[in-house]
Recover the amino acids of this structure.
């Protein structure tokens, strides 16, 4: 152990020395340009230089290396309005997999109307000058779905729109491999390559849609118009206290000779090649033993998942400017256990059970969790089990021959199911979980200008809960050994369910 | 580099300018479509309102008879979280407990003593159907409703709950009345105190416990529910087809009715639950037979 520590220290020292040496690399202009971390502060704090020839020149921040003109900086994003009407009062803005209010309840019987601009986005792309063959760039992107204080008024939560970090990553492109470091789409599901087109908020139910801090290494191989891409990533763990990052890996094949129009969510279409991607995830969970005072005893299990994604240009196109009649199919199938967080906001209603209270303590003893809900729970034998999910998402997008494809229609069918969530839930809580969620949408988009788009959408989503409705009663009879109605929990009736229908009109200007 | 872009003013949209009416038509079409998409899409109600024809005041005794149903919505009311006793908020400076599923043991606590049941379980059942009801309106403006939920339900106790805290097979099933009785398994040991607990709560009868064939060491305990309750108070007609119930100890309740002489249809007015019973929407009643002489 001691030798290992000494060895690790030696490696660290060597790395630091190497880093210092890299800092001392000559600048492109030839002079030594050792980076002083305080230099920027000094430059900013220093009084403005005396005016020279051009009095109107704005103060500038010194570039880190290269010439100012070699740096590429471009803001991007969109301003968007969403007008939404829901048939129930179940959802905030997006159709998240939280429980739909049932018919017969106040929220299940009344509508909700939402107007919001919070899905507007602002991003900045920065391309640094190529340095010794290494291309480097950074992207930082925000929207306005930051966490709202729980005591905020509804009005304030919409109008203030706290900023939320969506992406913040750097990318290095070398001749050998590419590296992505920062917060970006998860490799599991292959991110935005295979997203379906829709006016609705993505991810739609059952769609793998998740961003995470990660260190990813990608390798591309080009064989003519065929592109093979393999990637591995160490990703922020689904449970911080597992102590181990998630591992993700994927393989993607694309053929650029056959390309179609593809749009990720409500966005601008691009030319995308026929592609298929396979990706996987492995993660570890470690939680305290299921008791009021676990000491240092931990219980462990693991999670894993597999996703197969495809993009098929049924009617291909040559250029995005003329996408008339383009027809593209996207599909994704995913299966796994302990991966609910990969589907946006998904937990199915699962939680840890209450602890038994053998000491009759009042208030009752509590179990201290250290993991987000929906990934694992304790079963009836009090063993830690991960929760299974499988899902399919299929999307179709068609660009009408109007103005080169300026009018498009799209539709999605998706379904997410769990085959063990109910068996991992005590019967009295069955009404608080859903084991099946089915989603359908149809969309119409019109490009008013090349950057301004109007979208109309109808979305319907149904959840099937863990409980069942009571069987048809025998009216006018009192229960008893002969007259009783056999109503064993979970049998006899039909599965309880609820549905929300949504109409949405959205408008955005993309830049 | 920031690309220089131009923005269009309303005047510059000359392409669409000449056909301003077309833009207006589009806007109307969009609004119309939006309205079409968002109306008429509510969830289908399980209990549609019954007839509200009104008629004479429904004075007399009424009951649910076979073939004359009540209708309750498919509700789910989660059991109460036991971690916060008689309070909605935790003590100061401690965060509220995270939401949790219910206890696998249904709050049952077993132990090694002579009485296996240290703490009785929650007799939980969901959506007990209304199997019997009697409603009475008298000529003095008083009403009463007796509503009985019925059914046979099962409590599922996992093996862990039955045995982890010291309970064992081989003790007499009824140590109080038959201390020298034959040895019984933990399920039969639980049956006696559980039956007493159910009777003590007044609504849960005929409790029997058997080993769970799919969970070795666990027990399934069946019980019958006969849970009766309902409001009483005064009532007054509001208009030709609506009654206002004034229970006194609860908020006023409006009910639409249709008195067909030998049949009475009641519906909670404007979406309210009938008699303020959660989920209950309608009663289809018939005249109660006269009491035997």
């Amino acid at each position: 152990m001691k030798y290992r520590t000494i060895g690790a220290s030696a490696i660290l020292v060597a790395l630091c020395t190497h880093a210092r040496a890299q800092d001392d690399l000559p600048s492109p202009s030839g002079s030594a340009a050792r980076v002083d971390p305080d230099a920027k502060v000094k430059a900013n704090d220093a009084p403005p230089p005396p005016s020279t020839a051009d009095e109107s020149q704005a103060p500038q921040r010194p570039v880190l290396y290269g010439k100012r003109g070699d740096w590429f900086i471009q803001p991007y994003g969109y301003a968007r309005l969403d007008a939404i009407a829901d048939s129930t009062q179940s959802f905030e803005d997006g159709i998240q997999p939280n429980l739909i209010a049932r018919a017969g309840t106040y929220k299940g019987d009344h509508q909700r109307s939402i107007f919001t601009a919070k899905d507007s986005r602002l991003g900045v792309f920065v391309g640094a000058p190529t340095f010794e063959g290494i291309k480097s760039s950074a992207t930082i992107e925000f929207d306005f779905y930051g966490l709202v204080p729980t005591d905020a008024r509804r009005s304030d939560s919409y109008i203030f729109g706290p900023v939320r970090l969506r992406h913040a990553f750097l990318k290095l492109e070398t001749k050998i491999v590419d590296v992505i470091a920062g917060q970006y789409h998860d490799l599991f599901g292959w991110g935005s390559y295979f997203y379906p087109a829709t006016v609705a908020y993505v991810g739609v139910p059952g769609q793998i849609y998740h961003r995470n801090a990660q260190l990813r290494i990608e390798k591309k191989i080009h064989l003519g118009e065929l592109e093979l891409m393999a990637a591995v990533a160490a990703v922020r763990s689904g449970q911080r206290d597992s102590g181990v990052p998630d591992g993700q890996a994927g393989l993607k094949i694309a053929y650029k000779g056959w390309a179609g129009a593809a749009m990720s969510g409500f966005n601008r279409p691009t030319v995308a090649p026929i592609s298929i991607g396979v990706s996987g995830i492995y993660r570890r969970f470690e939680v305290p033993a299921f008791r009021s005072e676990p000491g240092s005893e931990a219980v462990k299990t693991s999670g894993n998942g597999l996703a197969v994604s495809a993009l098929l240009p049924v009617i291909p196109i040559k250029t995005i400017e003329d996408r008339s009649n383009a027809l593209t199919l996207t599909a994704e199938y995913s299966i796994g256990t302990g991966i609910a967080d990969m589907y946006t906001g998904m937990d199915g209603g699962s939680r840890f059970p209450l602890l038994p209270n053998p000491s009759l303590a009042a208030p009752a003893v509590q179990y201290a969790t250290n993991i987000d809900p929906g990934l694992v729970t304790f079963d009836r034998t009090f063993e830690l089990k991960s929760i299974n999910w499988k899902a399919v998402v299929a999307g179709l997008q068609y660009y009408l021959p109007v103005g080169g494809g300026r009018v498009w229609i799209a539709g999605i069918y998706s379904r997410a199911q769990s085959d063990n969530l109910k068996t991992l839930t005590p019967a009295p809580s069955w009404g608080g979980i859903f084991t099946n969620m089915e989603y359908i949408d149809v969309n119409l988009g019109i490009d008013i200008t090349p950057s301004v788009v109007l979208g109309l959408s109808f979305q319907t989503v149904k959840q099937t809960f863990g409980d069942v409705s009571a069987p048809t009663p025998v009216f006018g009879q009192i229960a008893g050994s002969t007259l009783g109605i056999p109503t064993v929990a979970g049998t006899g009736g039909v599965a309880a369910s609820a549905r929300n229908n949504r109409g949405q009109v959205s408008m955005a200007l993309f830049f | 580099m920031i690309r220089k872009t131009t923005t269009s003013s309303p005047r510059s949209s000359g392409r669409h300018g000449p056909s301003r009416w077309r833009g207006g038509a589009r806007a109307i079409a969009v609004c119309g479509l939006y309205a079409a998409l968002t109306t008429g899409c509510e969830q289908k109600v399980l209990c549609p309102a019954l007839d509200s024809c009104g008629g004479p005041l429904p004075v007399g005794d009424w009951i649910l008879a076979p073939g004359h149903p009540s209708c309750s919505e498919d509700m789910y009311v989660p059991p109460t979280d036991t971690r916060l006793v008689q309070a909605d908020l935790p003590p100061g400076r401690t965060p509220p407990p995270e939401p949790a599923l219910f206890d696998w043991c249904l709050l049952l606590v077993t132990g090694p003593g002579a009485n296996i049941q240290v703490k009785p379980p929650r007799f939980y059942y969901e959506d007990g159907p209304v199997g019997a009801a009697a409603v009475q309106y008298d000529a003095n403006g008083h009403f009463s409703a007796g509503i009985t939920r019925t059914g046979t339900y099962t409590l599922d106790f996992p093996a862990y709950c039955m045995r982890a805290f010291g309970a064992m097979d081989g003790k007499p099933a009824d140590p109080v009345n038959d201390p020298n009785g034959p040895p019984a398994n933990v399920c039969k040991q639980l049956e006696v105190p559980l039956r007493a607990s159910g009777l003590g709560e007044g609504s849960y009868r005929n409790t029997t416990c058997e080993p769970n064939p799919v969970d070795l060491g666990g027990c399934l305990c069946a019980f019958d529910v006969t849970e009766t309750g309902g409001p009483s108070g005064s009532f007054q007609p509001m208009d030709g087809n609506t009654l206002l119930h004034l229970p006194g100890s609860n908020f006023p309740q409006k009910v639409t009715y249709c008195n067909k002489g030998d049949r009475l249809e009641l519906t909670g007015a404007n979406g309210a639950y009938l008699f303020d019973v959660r989920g209950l929407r309608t009663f289809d009643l018939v005249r109660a037979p006269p009491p035997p002489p």
